[in-house]
TrEMBL record:
GO MF terms, alphabetically ordered: ATP binding; ATP hydrolysis activity; L-isoleucine transmembrane transporter activity; L-phenylalanine transmembrane transporter activity; L-valine transmembrane transporter activity
Keyword check for ATP-binding: yes
CDD domains associated with the record: ABC_Mj1267_LivG_branched
Domain called ABC transporter: residue spans: 6-252
InterPro entries cross-referenced by the UniProt entry: AAA+_ATPase, ABC_AA/LPS_Transport, ABC_transporter-like_ATP-bd, ABC_transporter-like_CS, BCA_ABC_TP_C, P-loop_NTPase
Domain of life from the UniProt record: Bacteria
Lineage of the organism: Bacteria, Pseudomonadati, Pseudomonadota, Betaproteobacteria, Burkholderiales
GO cellular component: plasma membrane
Stated name of the protein: ABC transporter ATP-binding protein
């Protein structure tokens, strides 16, 4: 069997004297949608930040695309194919929607040594602009291209963050609670978007998410965490039927089979 795209082995993480990840392992195959769930404080975001390289680990290893990336900083992992969105969308508020995407495309082209094309009076090349506009059209943001990013609605800001992430042509898209703070209709919209991106572009998705409808609708496999440990990993049906998982969520909104 070929090596998984992302393989995390026995990762440990301390904040000061306190260990918050106690040896977490997971593997994600190419093209999978893999969700990490668990109650508040379970360690999902920390696990995420360790995988993306935002914080270092205190033990264990992370392999991506056949390479040991454990010690690589976040920007080096981006170069190797990590795309990322955050719980609170990170975009350049003072830029237009279009310029946010242009900047991301130019950054990719510089890193991959793709030609940036001829610049005219400090403007991006037509090629870069066309790529940015196509991406915005794909994410139904083209009508807002000239709008200042700070004026976008929560849902549109998240779409723009997706566009920025996709501009880097990632192999794996890491989504930290992509529907956090959204209305039910925006949530459904983002879930459809993730599903479409995954299917059309064949991108692997790793996500944390509290909304179980979103998780069950999207994920091929789910890992459940509690107190910095893995409680269970499996398909939607396996996880829903697992008594250990039910115990973790006992008394909380969950997973009614
Ligand atoms: N920067 C930090 N410094 C110290 N402790 C931290 C830090 N970040 C997280 N923790 C602690 O690590 C543990 C795991 O937190 P983490 O945010 O990873 O959980 P989570 O599952 O993502 O929770 P939530 O669903 O609420 O976002 C918690 O006990 C938290 O208090």
């Amino acid at each position: 069997m070929s090596e998984p795209l992302l393989q995390v082995q026995d990762v440990r993480k301390n904040y000061g004297p306190i260990e918050v990840l106690h040896g977490v392992s997971l593997s994600v195959g190419k093209g999978e949608v893999f969700a990490i769930i668990g109650p508040n404080g379970a360690g999902k975001t920390t696990m995420f930040r360790v995988m993306t390289g935002e914080v270092g680990s205190n033990g264990g290893s992370i392999r991506f695309n056949g390479e040991d990336v454990t010690r690589l900083p976040a920007h080096e992992r981006v170069r190797r194919g990590f795309g990322r969105t955050f719980q609170v969308a990170r975009v350049f508020h003072d830029f237009t929607v279009l310029d946010n995407v242009i900047v991301a495309i130019e950054a990719r082209r510089r890193h991959t040594k793709e030609p940036l094309g001829p610049w005219r009076r400090c403007a991006p090349s037509e090629e870069v602009r066309a790529e940015a506009l196509a991406l915005l059209a794909d994410l139904k943001l083209d009508a807002l291209a000239g709008q200042g990013a700070r004026f976008l609605s929560h849902g549109d800001k998240k779409r723009l963050e997706f566009a920025i992430a996709l501009a880097g042509r990632p192999t794996v898209l890491m989504l930290d609670e992509p529907t956090a703070g959204m209305s039910p209709s925006d949530r459904a919209d983002i879930a459809r978007l993730v599903s479409r991106i995954q299917q059309e572009r064949g991108i692997t998705v790793v996500m944390t998410e509290h909304d179980m409808d979103v998780v069950f609708g999207l994920a091929n496999r789910i890992m459940v965490m509690n107190y910095g440990e893995v409680v269970a990993t499996g398909t939607v049906d396996e996880v829903r039927a697992d008594p250990k998982v039910r115990e973790v969520y006992l008394g909380k909104e969950m997973i009614s089979a």
